[in-house]
Amino acid sequence: MRMNRTLARLAEGHTALGCALQQYRSVEIPRLFAAAGFDYVFLDMEHSGFDLETVQDMVAAAAQAGITPVVRVGELLYSLVARLLDVGAQGIIFPRVECPEALAEAVSWTKFPPEGRRGYGVSAAMVDYEPATFTEIIRHANTNTMVVAQFETRAALDRADELLAVKGFHVAMIGPADLSVSLGVPGEFESPVLVDAVMAFIEKCNQHGVVPGIQTRGVVLARKWVERGMRFVGAGGEHSLLMEKARETVAELRRIQD
Prior knowledge:
Number of strands: 8
Strand order of the largest sheet: 1-2-3-4-5-6-7-8
Order of helices and strands: HEHEHEHEHHEHHEHHEHEH
CATH topology: TIM Barrel
């Protein structure tokens, strides 16, 4: 059974780096991200058209390549979480959390009893066809399933201490796009309003023993937030990386041509 390498890396005090996959329905992209050296791939089922079968194939490709497949669900719903975990996702991202009770309930869906309320539906493929008992599988899954809660609104920041006190989740991840809108500075990712709010949030995460994280729109902002103390950091998406490199390539060739 595969270990969650990203969880292990975070537990050792290191920073985990990832990239989102939102547009291109290809199992080769998780494999490419693994070869590039990313720790995790953020498979987005909130802001994409991906269906479960597409994500299942991507999850399998990621796991086989040695990169952690983490999936963002579209909403806090047990059936979404259970099915994604049953097809092999090693982490779940819960979007737009604002209520501690709702977060606690959602976290319980990611753990088998006695730690949570996840129903047992593990297939042989999920454990790589290894012979294992129920007890061994339950222990392994509860230890290696990463849970991420996204803080994306002023309301979430206002209740940060309550939310961060919820037991059982590992990473508190800022969603800067929605947060910038909520704070009244839409798209101004270096606005003092947003930066100061997020810096205060990082401090609270550290006080509660929760890893602070953020999903950014590219390497420039990702680097800044690593330097500011974020430890679970996403640098853009597959489409933005491709566009950035394509523009860079064309610009260089145009200079040669001219």
